[in-house]
UniProtKB/TrEMBL annotation:
PANTHER family: ABC TRANSPORT SYSTEM PERMEASE PROTEIN P69, PHOSPHONATES TRANSPORT SYSTEM PERMEASE PROTEIN. It holds the Pfam family BPD_transp_1. GO terms for cellular component: plasma membrane. Keywords: Cell membrane, Membrane, Transmembrane, Transmembrane helix, Transport. The lineage of its organism: Bacteria, Pseudomonadati, Pseudomonadota, Gammaproteobacteria, Cardiobacteriales. The gene is phnE. It is a multi-pass membrane protein. It comes from Cardiobacterium hominis (strain ATCC 15826 / DSM 8339 / NCTC 10426 / 6573). It comes from the Bacteria. The keyword Iron does not apply. It is found in: Cell membrane. Belongs to the binding-protein-dependent transport system permease family. This is Phosphonate ABC transporter, permease protein PhnE. InterPro entries: MetI-like, MetI-like_sf, PhnE/PtxC.
């Protein structure tokens, strides 16, 4: 009995710890690394602390200047620029679709079993995504000059990588059963795409296109800041002239457009998907 009541020394010495020593050291090193990165960033971006402390007061002053908004300015200039923004986003999305469809087929290894073509298509898609739309706009302004044409080309080039990548991944995830059945029946490559791949990727296709159009509406709103047409051009002009009541109208319009676009996209997604 005495042996049964005697506590096990190994069990008695065990202590519960939330984190092991290695985990504690790793967490400490992680937060220390973040702190060092923040300090180095603050040092290299040359923060002017006088402006930083004065920022809340300047922000309040700017907001006061925005009210009351000049609502009459909407009919004068904002509406026309807003329609131009919609045209840039819509045409850019359509052009991106035309270019992304063949690239997505070439990028999908199950549709194009050629590593060279796969690599080329994926390289083009990555190149499209790696350059920001504002940078694309600056490049096309140098080619076409300021205006909506440069903005449309910038939106299209930026969207190709997004649409092509997601659509290519959707094509690669299509179940092989239906495709093998079509092959056994002697279907051509185009018939396999039309009757095998398309029904499987159609929901993803519409979802990708609606999402990208929504993103392009927002991006085309700011392309005008660099001269690529749309509502951003009149906002840049109003800011340069310190017409803050007109800036307020433009910002309210952009906000309303984003909300309405989100509602429309959600409605069509439910109807189509």
């Amino acid at each position: 009995m005495s042996e049964m009541n005697t506590p096990n020394p190994a069990l008695a010495e065990r202590l519960w710890q939330r984190h092991t020593l290695g985990q504690k050291l790793a967490r400490t090193a992680f937060w220390l690394g973040i702190g060092i990165a923040v300090l180095l960033s603050l040092r290299n971006i040359n923060v002017i602390w006088e402006f930083l402390w004065d920022a809340p007061e300047q922000m309040l002053d700017m907001v006061r200047r925005m009210f009351p908004p000049d609502y009459a300015y909407y009919r004068v200039a904002v509406h026309t620029a807003l329609m131009e923004t919609f045209h840039i986003a819509t045409l850019g999305t359509i052009f991106a679709l035309v270019a992304a469809l063949p690239l997505s087929i070439l990028a999908a290894h199950n549709l194009t079993p050629n590593r060279g073509l796969n690599f080329l298509a994926k390289t083009l898609l990555v190149a499209s995504r790696s350059v920001n739309s504002l940078v694309w706009a600056l490049l096309f302004i140098a080619v076409f000059g300021p205006g909506p044409l440069a903005g449309t080309a910038a939106i299209a080039c930026r969207s190709v990588g997004f649409v092509g990548k997601l659509l290519g991944e959707a094509l690669e995830e299509v179940p092989r059963g239906a495709i093998e059945a079509l092959k056994a029946a002697g279907a051509t490559q185009s018939s396999q795409i039309l009757y095998g791949y398309w029904p499987a990727v159609k929901p993803a296709f519409w979802s990708i296109m609606l999402l990208r159009w929504d993103i392009n509406v927002r991006e085309s709103s700011v392309l005008g800041l660099v001269g690529a047409g749309g509502i951003g051009m009149i906002m840049n002009s109003a800011i340069d002239l310190f017409e803050w009541d007109r800036v307020a109208v433009i910002l309210l319009t952009i906000f309303a457009v984003v909300v309405i676009a989100e509602i429309v996209i959600t409605y069509f997604r439910r109807r189509l998907l």
